[in-house]
Amino acid sequence: MRISCNNVGIQKAVQIINKGGIVIFPTDTVYGIGCDPYNQNGVLSLYKIKKREKTKPFPVIGYSKKELEKIAEFNDKAEKI
């Protein structure tokens, strides 16, 4: 399903994510793929789609370190950044 990049499209993408779905979205250079990191079904679907080992974590993008600490671990190098 292709969704327009407007208010209606964004609302539809949010609905998909909230139901454990996956969305693909353009960035400045490549396309990203994502899901709700708090939804186990979404995360498992992402691992399946990417054919990624479950022991290998995904990169995570968030709006604050405090929010990211809920789902990600920061090593010493990441803490310095």
Automatic annotation (TrEMBL):
- Tell me the keywords, alphabetical order: ATP-binding, Cytoplasm, Nucleotide-binding, Nucleotidyltransferase, Transferase, tRNA processing
What SUPFAM superfamilies does the record point to?
YrdC/RibB (SSF55821)
Is the keyword Transferase assigned to this protein? Answer: yes
Q: Which GO terms describe its molecular function?
A: ATP binding; double-stranded RNA binding; L-threonylcarbamoyladenylate synthase; tRNA binding
What residue ranges carry the coiled-coil annotation?
Answer: none
Q: Which GO terms describe its cellular component?
A: cytoplasm
The UniProt record lists the YrdC-like domain at: 7-81
Per the UniProt record, one Pfam family is: Sua5_yciO_yrdC
Q: Name one GO biological process term.
A: regulation of translational fidelity
Where, subcellularly, is it found? Cytoplasm
Q: Which reaction equations make up its catalytic activity?
A: L-threonine + hydrogencarbonate + ATP = L-threonylcarbamoyladenylate + diphosphate + H2O
What InterPro entries does the annotation carry?
Answer: DHBP_synth_RibB-like_a/b_dom, Sua5-like_dom, TC-AMP_synthase_SUA5
Q: What is its main location?
A: cytoplasm
Q: What is its EC number?
A: 2.7.7.87
Per the similarity annotation, which family is this?
Belongs to the SUA5 family.
Name the UniProt record assigns to this protein? L-threonylcarbamoyladenylate synthase
Source organism? marine metagenome
